Amino acid sequence: MPVEVLAEDAIVDFADNSLKIDGKKDANPIVLAMKKCPQMTVLRLSGNTLGVEGAEAIGSQLSNHPSLTRCLFSDLFTGRMVDEIAPALRHLSAGIISAGAQLTELDLSDNAFGPRGVVGVTELLSSPVCYTLRTLKMNNQGLGHQGCRYLTEALLKGLRDSKGSGPKLKTFSAGRNRLENYGAKLLADVFSEMKSLEELHLYQNGIGIHGMDGIQCLVNAIALNPNLRVLNLSDNSLTADGGTELAKSLSHLPNLEELILDDCLIRGRGCRSLANEIEREDVVPNLKCLRLYGNEITRDAGVHLALCLEAKTKLKHLNLNANEFGSEGIDMVIRTLESIGLIEALDVPPGDRSTEDSVSDDLDPRYRAFDEDQGSDNEDEEGDDDFEEGEYNDSEEAGDFEDEELSRTQSSFHSSGKSGDSSFQTVKERSVGGPFGYASPKSTEKLTEAKPLAVGGAFSFRSILSDIQNEANANHGSGLFSALDSTDASACRSKLWANASAGSKGSPMSGLFAPPRLGTFVSPPKDTKLTNQPSGCLFTTSTASQSATVGPNFKEAEAVECLKQCLASLEDDALMQILTGKLPCWSKWNISETTLTEISSTPETLVRFAFRFARQYGSNPNHMDLAIRALLSACTADSHPLAAKQRQQQLISLSGRAVNQILVHVGAMKPDRSDPTEVKASEEVLIYAKTDLELLKCFLSQHGARLDSAVRQSLALLLTQHKEAHPQTPPITSALDAVLGALEAKMGSLSVS
Length: 753
Known about the structure:
Number of helices: 27
InterPro entries: Leu-rich_rpt (IPR001611), LRR_dom_sf (IPR032675), RanGap (IPR027038)
CATH class of the domain at 556-748: Mainly Alpha
Radius of gyration: 31 Å
GO molecular function: GTPase activator activity; small GTPase binding
Protein name: Ran GTPase-activating protein 1
Pfam families: LRR_6 (PF13516)
Region (Disordered): 347-443
Low-confidence stretches: 353-361, 380-550, 644-651, 749-753
């Protein structure tokens, strides 16, 4: 029956009847059905083909239906000329406007009429009839830039004519419309004014292929729609930068339930940015669906993401297929999800879809969730997840490393004497089990296999392994770099942070691959005199310093806020400048445990702050002292009670993260290429070598004795190997000699030849 009366809706339904409605005679069955239903609220005409005369007859009858609220007109012009579509839509629109209806839903999807057709509904969309519109579906219309302009102008006109009362869309869908950045910016203007969206679907629109401006505008607009529940940006070129920008908006979306970013090329860095935001309990707490299919996400980033999902207990659907995890990475992700109780959320396709090239599911059918994985077990062989040469022409993707002069200089600095080989090698150390207590199949391997690395920055325990390892294992269960089999900082990072915070009770996120918990490692010991306990806390002073009087103009609250802002925005020169004006007081400031916890900085952040601050203001002794104290806080984190439990649960101490960051800054370790901050630090090694090594020398001269022996030994090994690898750069060698001299004076019996 074409007429259906439900409890709330009176529906006239001719959907999918494949009717060819050319003239009034063809439209007569529809017109009669509408006459029989004077209280019609829903009209379904989808799946037919409507001509101009037929639309005129239907539009005339529509003028008699003021109760109409939903018009479902998708796939309504199959086989029609473009010149027919706009007049037909105008006839329908005129009838609805004449009736004074109050539409809540309009679906015009799958009508490929382009900009010449969309003008047929612009009058309707800007009229009072659509002030009540809540759902607008415009998928697969071929709008392009011009069509999107017509659409957004109509919506903005309605908003302004109604003085902001409407239309207030809750659902907007415009996938497959070639909107690109131009269209994204136009829509962002509309969304910024509406602030009412609950569902947004903009898949397959080429957003981002010509730069970041469209994504940036869209992200800013999304953040102004706090009721958003569903966000689908699949198959757009967000890239890592877009993923990072989108991550910033998540804290403004407390009601988000579905985040769909398939085929967006967010890669490792974008994934980490999203993961770091999602990890927070107050960010998207109601997340039920997360789709990151086909994003070239690497193994370490994937494991980090899995760990960060622990607090998302409502998650029911997780798709991480077609990324670059490799079989080991897939195993890590599955075990991680299992350990945090979210393994059932993993989207496993039904049946046996395995092929010759797919992941085997002989042992666990959940491996089918990764049957399109593109990764390799050797993370070193994977391409740069953000800066692969030749992959994109966008300036933000391919233009950051084109300075040939700098490349030649650094190639000389980072290369060894042998062509194609690095002089640095890493010995594979003893494995003590996989993450979260799962036994590692390689746990019985001997410490004999050396693994050659790519360009620049690692070390070899080959000649003095036994003495160093025995001492480190006796003290800590393993040496500082015991789990290191690569100098790639991205590999290091996934193995370092324990996730337990103060008061945690056996958190399943603590362990080998746990991410950092901000603000938990720098708190000083309670009820302990500083004169008896080495302190790693930033600004902790000696007894003499504590007894000194703080300047009369010192305002601690302002100082704390300034420091916090600097650590959060390390590239902000204005904040750094403000900080320098407060330093004369800070040299005598005994900052409290509570304040330090609130500052919430990671070791990497403190190290980066130290080097950046010393580079700009190190000529002032007070400024250099602040940089040194920042390094001390990062490198002695393991001396605090809060870190004791974490140190027992992982192979590498918390101080190891700080040491890795120091080594990146002085060129002795490769940067995490997905982290632009580390990449930039590595590029600036030659520029700031003198200042950076002077800071390190001063730090070791003043506080080297307070460092853990494993930290001192590992620094000595790495820096010695680094010096030997670059004899052609005398200034670097001379500065490294000074650093090693300062370190050797604090090392007692350790001899490095």
